[in-house]
Every structure is written in C-alpha cells, then in structure tokens.
Amino acid sequence: MKKLFAVLLAAVSIGSAAQEITGAGATFPAPVYAKWAADYNKATGAKINYQSVGSGAGIKQIEAKTVTFGASDMPLTDEKLKEAGLFQFPTVIGGVVPVVNIKGIKPGELKLTGALLGDIYLGKVTKWDDPAIKQLNPTVALPSDAIMVVRRADGSGTTFIWTNYLSKVNPEFKDKVGEGTAVNWPVGAGGKGNEGVSAFVSRLPNSIGYVEYAYVKQNKMTYAQVQNSAGTWVTPSDTAFKAAAAGATWSKTYFQVLTNQAGKESWPISGATFILVHLKPLKPEEVKTALKFFDWAYTSGDKSADDLDYVALPDSVKNQVRADWKRLGLN
Question: What is the spatial distance between Cα 210 and Cα 208, in angstroms, rounded to a whole number?
Fold first, then answer.
C-alpha cells in the first residue's frame, strides 16, 4: 500500500511540475503577463512564473536554456533565431513614452520632438529653458534648472525601442550612441527595469526618462507629446499604438520594428513585445505548457491587455502564430 501511495504521489508531482513553468525577460509587458498568469492560474490551476528582469537578461536566459521561455521587446532577426535554434512570436503592442517631473507641468502639456529628445540624451540640451525647448513650448512655464536625465541601467528592450527611434530621427545620436538593448550613454543616471526608471523620475525633480505606457498610467506620471513622422503632435494611447502597428507585415516575418511609422495618428515610439522558445527544447512538455498559456492569452486576454493600455494583436496574426506552432511541432 505504501509503495502504491508513493507511486501515485510521484505521478502527481510530475504532473504538477509540468504545470509550473518559468519565463524571464522584458519589463515592458510585465504588467499584462502578471495579470494573464493570475487569471490563467484561476482558470486552469497551472502556474506561470514570470521574472521581470529586462530583455537582455531574458535573451541570455533562454539561450542558456535556464527558463522555458524568454521575453524581449527587441525582436531577433531571422538569421539570429536560426543560429540560436529559437522561434519568436509577438504577444501585444505598446508604446514607450517620455516622462518628466517638472513642477507645475501637467501630463501632455510639454511637447518634444524626437530630434530634441536625442539632443537631451546626448547631453547637448542641458536646461529646461533651453531655446530649443522654449520654441516648441512658448506658453509653458519652464524652469532654468538642469535636466536630470534618467535611462535604463540594465539590458532592455524598452531601451532598444527608444534608441532605435532616436537613431532614426537624430543622425548624431545614431553615430554617437546607436541602438540596442544596452548602449554607452553620454549622460544620465540608470534605473533598473521600467519600474526603476518610473520610481527614479517620480522622485527626482526636473528629470526626464522613458517607460512603457502601462507604467505611466499606473504611476500617474507626466508624459510629453511627441511629434510623429507626419508632423502631428501625438498623445500616447492604445489608438496611437494601433495606428503605428497598422503597417506591420507579420505574414513575411515576426521581425517587426514599429518606430517612426507613417500615419497621422501613429505614436512614433511604438513596439511589439515577443516571446522566445527553443525549437528543440530540453523539456518539450514545458514548452507545450507555455504555448497553452499564450494560446489562452490570445483567446481570453484581450480585455486585460486593453485595461492595462496595451494593444492586442489582430486575430489574423494570432492565427498565423498558432499555425506556426503546429507547423514547427511546438504544440
């Protein structure tokens, strides 16, 4: 009897283990992944542990096979995926937003172009009453205080989206800093994760930083309007993120970068966020569990994404991803 009980207990343990997996990476989608994981646990009993450690760490961990899935806001090229034996697919779309902490300035009151943001992060524009800022904001009471620049300290997909955009609109930024999950910043103090940058800017007077929009909303931060490629001053919103994603050609490749897109309504610093899994995983059952979770999120997670100010993928893209899972033998 004891032997039978031990066998049954071992079987239960194996089943439970298969229903508990870990992923790690981007802080950009962490709020929606946490909500999805909680709702999925209630619905199925399966436990999805997500470690919000930044895209750079997430890519390293999936490449090292220490997690079931990695997460990154910087899509990997098709060549890199093939080399690493990985498959990537998008989950939601969002936006990176410049946030400031200037006494008396209300959300959306300050206007900044991409070129000017690049000059601030190059250390060329150093005071809030600089003529270049005043020219765009003639009716805003700007202090003569120094601009306290805040950026990410860790490898970050949010940084990739931010620096990719600044490199497109500011040639000097492209030459001197460039794009990537981690760059050599000329100026600024670093915060870890979107959480760290949000906290840093919130407590540091006269600061500027960049965070994913969900963190702006959650922390009631003061954001700036940004001029897009059509010359329109745009406020960050799910509508503006959706407009930026309208031109994405997902049917060709999942390597889609959504910064500086055409369209009068497009938020210029938009991006999708991605999941990475191994094509030949060490534990196939765990990858199947992960894909079941994301399949559930595609079906039942749109409202949560919307509530947290992300944009759900079009059904056509979700169905394409599902078809690729089957074609590649990943579910």
Answer: 7
